[in-house]
Structures are given as C-alpha cells and as structure tokens.
Amino acid sequence: MQLRPRQRDFVQRCIDALESKGNTLGIAPTGAGKTVMLSAVAKRMGGRALILQHRDELVAQNRSTFKAVAPEIETDLYTAARKRWSPGVTFGMVQTLCRQDNLESMPKLDLLVIDEAHHVAANSYRNIINHARTMNPALKVFGVTATPQRGDGAALREAFDNISDVITLGELISSGFLVKPRFFVIDCDIRGDLANVKTTATDFDMEQVSKIMDKQAVNDRVIQEWKDKAGDRKTVVFCSTVSHAGHVMEGFKQAGIKTDMVHGDLPDLARRKVLKAFDKGEIQVLINVAVLTEGWDCQDVSCVVLLRPCSYKGTMIQMIGRGLRKVDPARYPNALKSDCIVLDFGYSLLTHGSIESDPTVGQDRESGGRMKACEGCGIEIPAGVKICPVCGHIHETEAGEREPRKPLEEFVMTEIHLMELSPYRWQDMFDGAVTMANGIDAWACLVDHDGMWHAVGGRRETSVNLLNRSKDKLQALASADDFLRAHGDKEAAKKTKRWLSQPASDKQLSLLGLAGGMAFGMTKYLACCLITWKINEPRIQRTILN
Length: 546
What we know:
This protein has helices at 5-21, 34-45, 56-69, 94-97, 100-103, 123-135, 153-159, 169-174, 191-195, 206-213, 216-230, 242-254, 268-279, 313-321, 348-352, 363-367, 415-421, 473-487, 506-512, 524-545; strands at 23-27, 49-53, 75-78, 89-93, 111-115, 140-145, 163-166, 180-185, 235-238, 259-263, 285-289, 303-306, 339-344, 371-373, 380-382, 427-429, 434-438, 442-449, 452-459, 465-470. By secondary structure, the protein is α/β, with parallel strands linked by helices. β10 (259-263), α13 and β11 (285-289) form a beta-alpha-beta unit. The protein folds into three domains: 5-167, P-loop containing nucleotide triphosphate hydrolases (Rossmann fold), CATH 3.40.50; 177-352, P-loop containing nucleotide triphosphate hydrolases (Rossmann fold); 415-545, no CATH class. The protein starts with a helix and ends with a helix. The strands form four sheets. Strands 3-4-2-5-6-1-7 form a seven-stranded parallel sheet. The protein has a six-stranded parallel sheet with strand order 8-13-12-9-11-10, with helices on both faces.
C-alpha cells in the first residue's frame, strides 16, 4: 500500500520523535488515513509491538489495514475471544488486557501503539502503559488521535511529552482528499438556553441539552430543514440522549424516510446489524448518540446533522468528519459525492468557528522542523502550530500578535496546485474539454460534459469507472489523481521523466493517423494520452452517459 506524500511526512516525523524522545503523539483527523500511518510506523519501528484499541470494530479494522501495509509481519489478537501474543504485532482490546491476570501474560514489548489516544486518561490505559514500561523501561509509546482535547490534558501529558505532527482537516480538504463541507447554522431560538447548560468533565450535560432541544417544534424544524437542503442525501444525525434520538427517529419515519438509530446501550450484534443496513443503503437516515464519533467509516454519507452542542471543537470536527470522506467507487459503485451538507442546530459552528482548527500547511517550510513548548500546558508541539491541540492555547506570531483564525476558504487549493503536487503530468486535450494523465498501468481523465466535470479512470484490461461527477473541477481532478496514485506506475510515468518530453515515435504517429508534418511539437506523452483516449473513447462515453 502506497502512502501519500503528507502521510509519509507524518510517519517520518513520528518515527524521528520516537527514536529521540521515546514517546510521541500524532494528530490526524478522519480521512487522513490514520490507521495506515500508525501501521507504517509500527512496520518501520520493527520489534515486538502491541496496537491497543477500545472497540472490537477497531481491532478488526486496524489488523486488516496493517496486513495491507505490512503483509510480511506476523500478527495476532488479544481479545476476549482470542488471547494470543504474536512475535510481531498483536492487536489488543483495552478492556481485556487491563485485567491483572491478562497483564501478567504480556511479553516484553518494544513498541506500544495507542489508537484513539485521548482515552489514555482512563485507568485501564494507564495500567497497561505502566505495566509495559515496567517490563521494558526502553519501551517506545506512540499515540494517534483526532481529538486530543476530548481527553484529560494532564493524563495526555503523562503519557506523551510531545506532539510530533498535526494534520488538519483543512489540509485534507484543500488538497482534495476530503470533500468540501457546506455549512448551515439553523436558529431555532434556543441559543440563549443552550448557553446556560452546565458542562461535565468531558462535555455538556446532555440531559439538560435534551430538555432544551427535544421539543416537538424543534424536531419538526429539523425534518423540514433536512428536506429542503438535503432530502436526497444519506445522513447521520447526532443527538443528545437516547430519548431525544428516539423522538427524532419517529419524526423522520412519519415523514416517510427509512430511519434507524444506534446508541451505546444497544447490544453489539443489534448495532452491527443497523450499521450494515445503513452501509448497504437500506436506511437513509441514521440517528445516533455518542457512538459514531470514532472508528466508523461509511463513505457515501453526504449530510451530517448536529442536534447537540459540542463543548470541545475536536468533538465537532470528529462528527462533521463522518461526512467528509470521499467515495471509493469499488466499494460504492453507484455513489457520487462532491460535498457534504452540515446542518448545525446546536450552534457549535458559531461557538468554535471553522473546522480548520490550526492552519499548519507548510509547517516544515515555516519552522524548519523546530519544536516549541506550549505556553499553556507545556507539551512540545511543532513550531508551525499556532493553536495547541491539547489545551487550545493560541500562540503569538513572531511579531507578537496572536494570529487570527482564518476562514477555511483561504486554504482552498487551486487546480494548478493540485496538478503540481501530482506525480503525474496532466495533459489538456481538445481545447481543454478533456484533461488526461497516463500512469502506464492505469489512466484517468476529466471530461467536461453537460455542465459537469466527469472523472473517469481505467486500468489495463479492466472496465472503465466513473470516479466522480461534479461542477467543481478540483473535486473531480482530486478523485482522478487519487485513482492514479493508487493504480498507476509513479516511477515509469513520473512527470519529470525525460521520455515524456521526447518527440513522438513513428509508431505512435501511425496509430494516431498523423503524418510527420502534421505532428510538429507532438511529444511521446501527449501521443500516449491521445492513443489512450482513442482506444477508450467509446467506453468513456458510455460510462459518462449511463
């Protein structure tokens, strides 16, 4: 499995910190490929490792991803159903391992990886970390999370004294790896009431929130706004309590919408059944309470409804992130998605601002890889990070003034930038109506048709696939480039290769039906793209028109 350039940077920074400091925390949001990156770190660090999770779904998901990244390394499970230690990498459940008799079975570990590391505040995690360190004082501890502010900051700093890298949602959106969100804050005249809700150690008091938001007038408004703005979209709704969720679910059902709900008290088998039905499209709207903020992936969700406020910005980002993933056409062959609508009834966006929490794009260029101690909590963070991911302290610029939070639009990448970052050369053809790149083993193109940009890709001797359809060329281009990065030969077709600019061969010109005098300036690469188009044009047309 190939890592994207930003993922490779993340992995290298985390490894450098582990080797120099013995521990580190890496921060990466939904859609960054967190599991791929933690797997890559474990692979490169070597030795005997434990990857720690707190839910069964994460154990299976992480092990599957690790096998794709490092198929040569032996793995096993330490869960309630199977207690086996691998000489390579073991995937363990916190709830099982924290028991004293199970802890005593733990071998000497070289690396402990903690997924969703903001949970280290719990005694179960701390007991496992302390026991592993007792067995091996040189143990390296690596944590990954999207939401460090959701945990106890003091407990985080006990486990990690530094943050090696921070990937932000804004980076992923502007680079085309996530779809763009479209925000709507709906005012139901309850903002003043919500402002008086007490906070607990981890969030707002949701029983109080429910008394304010779980009213017939608000629920009716939710259904109407959803119908007006997102009625044809697959939707996830976040509610305050199970009772609140039940009333919202009934409202959607009465409106004729196929709806179901999941929550923490639902048995695992029943929850998996509902999630499977939603993933298959048998349910359009999924209501949930504190279940779908971590480790859940349904890529064709294109609407997120927030029916509760968020005391932490990280929680809000995690929820919105459920709808920002791009669609894998192999997994969802009939799904097209270019953006995600966010309907916020809890005023979280007004409270916390843009989901781009910390503009750290290009932090290497700005800071030269330097670190600094956070003035608020003391943890070491990259010098380019302006807002501490753990305590939220806003750091001053070199001029001595606090840098204002910039709107997300200022970080939106242009089509030219995305082409520059691509390992492939994107070639305009037919007066710009088609843009194509050829990766030898695969190809992709953008076709301007009927006011939409269609991203189409194909591989040798396989069918042609519609990758995206969007009015936004950048979104279509990002999907096409993702496809090529996954299936093309980046070395043979790298845009800096000399052969791309050499004159077209006689054989190429013959295939194109061009005489020598008609091919002035024709390069081998342009000829290669034109031949690919000529061969595949009928299939491309059928794919676009179907």
